[in-house]
Each structure stands twice: as C-alpha cells, then as structure tokens.
Amino acid sequence: MTRCDAGRLMAASAIVSAVALWWEASCWYKRGRMISCWDFVITVRARVRMQKVIRRMLPLWVSRFDGGGAAQIKFTSSDVIVFTPPKSGTTWVTHMCHQIRTHGGALTFEDQDDVVPWIDRLGTAYLRGTRFNDEPDAPHEAAPRVFKSHAEWKDRPQGTYKQVWVFRDAVDMMVSVSRFLPSLWAIERPLSEAEMCSFLLHAGDVEAAISSLVAAWDHRHDERLLILFYEDILEDHLGTVSTLARFMDVSLTPAELKTVVEQTTQQAMLNHHLAFACVKQARNAYAAEGLALDPAKLTGKVRRPTGGKPVLPEGVRAAVGRAWQHLAAQSTGCADYAGLRAAKGAWAAQ
Questions:
Q1: DSSP string covering 169-220, please?
Q2: What residues contact 143, with CB distance under 8 A and at least 6 apart?
Q3: d(Cα 289, Cα 134) in Å, to the nearest integer?
Q4: Residues ≥6 apart with Cβ < 8 Å to 48
Q5: Which of 44, 271, 299, 329 has its CA 20 to 30 A from that of 251?
Q6: Tens digit of pLDDT for each residue in 18-33?
Q7: Using an 8 Å Cβ cutoff, are 225 and 163 in contact?
Q8: Where in the sequence is the signal peptide annotated (predicted)?
Q9: What is the per-residue DSSP string for 135-146?
Q10: pLDDT band per the 50, 70, 90 thresholds, residue 15
Q11: Inter-residue contact 189 to 49 (CB < 8 Å)
Q12: Where are the domains of the chain?
C-alpha cells in the first residue's frame, strides 16, 4: 500500500467515524438525551466528574444478599411499595403512609430509613446502621408494611404487594437532584443545576421516569395500583392523605386525618429535619472517603424554601419534551406531562 493509499484510507475512516458520531448524536437529540450539541460539548467535563462520583459510590451499593435486599422480603397482599424516580416525592408520600398506619402517631424515629426501608439498597454498606439493612423482612412499627423504591417499572420486585407510583415534572426533578446530592455524597465540586440536567438527560434518568410513568398509566385500572403526581399533592394535600388511607385500607377518624395532614406538612417535617436528612446514608458515604460528617450541613430531603429560581438553558424543557414525544405521546394520547396530569384528573373524576 502506498503512502497515498494509506492517507485515503485514514481519511475515509475519519469520515465514517464522523458520520457514525453524527448519527448517534442525532438519535440522542431526538430522544431528548441531549439539550444541544453545543451543550453536550461544554458540559463533558461536568458529566465526567459526576461519573467519577458514581463510580466511587458503587461499592457502597453492592448488596451482600443474593438477588439484592428486596429478594429477602416475603411480600404480602397488604404490603405497600412507594415507587418514585429520585426526588419526586418519595419522602413526603412515604411519611404520609407511615403517619396513616400509625394513625397520626408522634414522630419518634431518628432516621426515616429505620421505619420505611429502601428496598433497592438493603444489605449494603450504604445503609449500614439502619433498622432493616441486616433484616429486610423484619416486622414494621405498624401495619401495613410500607417500603420505598427508586426502581423502574421493569425492575420491580416480584410479589403481590400494592403499588403507589409518584411522578414529578422532570425539570423540577433534575433541579432537586442537583441541590440534594452534593452534601449527601460529599461531592467536592458539585455540578450546577444546568450541568446536572445535562448529565441526567444523557444518563437516561428522564427516559426511565417517563417509561415507568407510561407503564403505570397503562395499568391505571388496577385496583392495587395508585398513581400520584407531586404537583397534585401540593394542590390537594388533604385529598391525597384521604386517598392513600383508602388505598392502604386504613380507617382514620376525622381527628386522626387532621393530625396526619398537619404532621406531613413541609414545616412539620422541617421541625424534624435530621429525621429526613439521610444522616446514616451520608455518614457511610463520608466514612468511605475518610471524612467526618457534620449532619447540620446536610441539605436533607425536605428543603427550606430558598425563593431562588434555577438558571437553566432554554433547551432543557425542550429536551424533556422530545423524550416525551419519543416515549409517551403516542401511547398515552397526551402531548406532555401536564396533559397526562389533566387526563388522570378527568379519569379519576369519572
């Protein structure tokens, strides 16, 4: 082969690689996994930093139980699992469920993981020190048993339990993640809200949330499945508690219902901030890095209002819209998340 032929071959190879990269980027863009090509380029270092953080956390998430912690639980027909994408109302709804089953009992736990186990991480170093980490099937404080999970629909554990699925606007979800994780995982150089949106979109978190929403919506007629939207809970706190109580087959007196609502307000939960701050999770994450934790510096799962609005690229919501069109528009008949919320309200009113 002559030098000229070798040059042509290298040029052809470069063209093929460029076309393949363009095609892949085009697919990502259409699926909403890229805000724009320019954003993808300028946020590459931030995404790499976040990938390093996740690789650092991975050993803490390995369960010593065969099949994971959830496989050790003998689920019953009265059990309730609250499924949500991250930062979509998990803490709030699981606390409502706990308050309902205790009929508005006083908040006595130090860490919410001690009363509502996170089944995805049981048996791991990350949940070391929590009540159910070594005994996933241990008795609960009250009936019915309540669990939480961030698993996607396709990865749900087997069993005959009841399912509560909670969803939230994807942009708000991503912003909340960016504010919550740095203090929890000891991230020295946190991503900005815009960078976190870029990371989560490309990592497929938004696609996963929408896919689970579509699957849950397809099963909305199942009497053992309940779909809630975070924004609807904000608008009708009392109605949500009443709906959850009926779904859980727990009868509350008017006085108990009032107490449950009062004890699941943002302010009531902020009064017990550390109980909802994942202190044990954070302590284990910090210890793995040889760091000491100051619990007072944890952002926590219930944040105090800041009044500040996130500064995001204009294309973030458009990317979420493309993801919706790719995954949900045709199957749900709704143009966007807000449209599905409205459809759910109309369906529930029938």
A1: -HHHHHHHHHHHHHHHHT-SSPPPHHHHHHHHHHHTHHHHHHHHHHHHHHTT
A2: 78, 101
A3: 23
A4: none
A5: 271
A6: 445 555 667 888 999 9
A7: yes
A8: none
A9: -TTPPPSSSS-E
A10: low
A11: yes
A12: 41-349
> What tokens appear for 213 in the block?
């929403």
163 has which bridge partners?
81, 225
Alpha-carbon gap, residue 16 to 310, rounded angstroms = 40
Q: Among residues 202, 209, 231, 238, which one has the least CA distance to residue 151?
A: 209
| Cβ pair 346, 233 in contact under 8 A | no
The CATH H-level (homologous superfamily) assignment of domain 41-349 is: P-loop containing nucleotide triphosphate hydrolases (3.40.50.300)
Q: How far from the centroid of its chain's Cα atoms is residue 66's Cα? A: 24
CA distance 315 to 321: 10
The answer to whether 37 and 25 have CB atoms below 8 angstroms apart is: yes
Q: What is the pLDDT of residues 108-153, one digit of tens each?
A: 999 999 999 999 999 999 999 999 999 999 999 999 999 999 999 9
Cα–Cα nearest to 204, from 320, 318, 91: 320
DSSP state of 32: T
Nearest to 79, CA basis, from 27, 136, 15: 136
Structural tokens at position 55: 């690789």
Distance CA 75, CA 113 (A): 18
pLDDT (0 to 100) of residue 349: 78
Q: Which amino acid is at 252?
A: L
Tabulate helix, strand, coil % of the chain (nearest 5). 55, 5, 40
Within 10 angstroms of residue 187's Cβ, the number of other Cβ atoms is: 17
Distances (CA, A) of 282 to 93, 100, 177, 256, 278: 22, 28, 15, 33, 6
Amino acid at 253: T
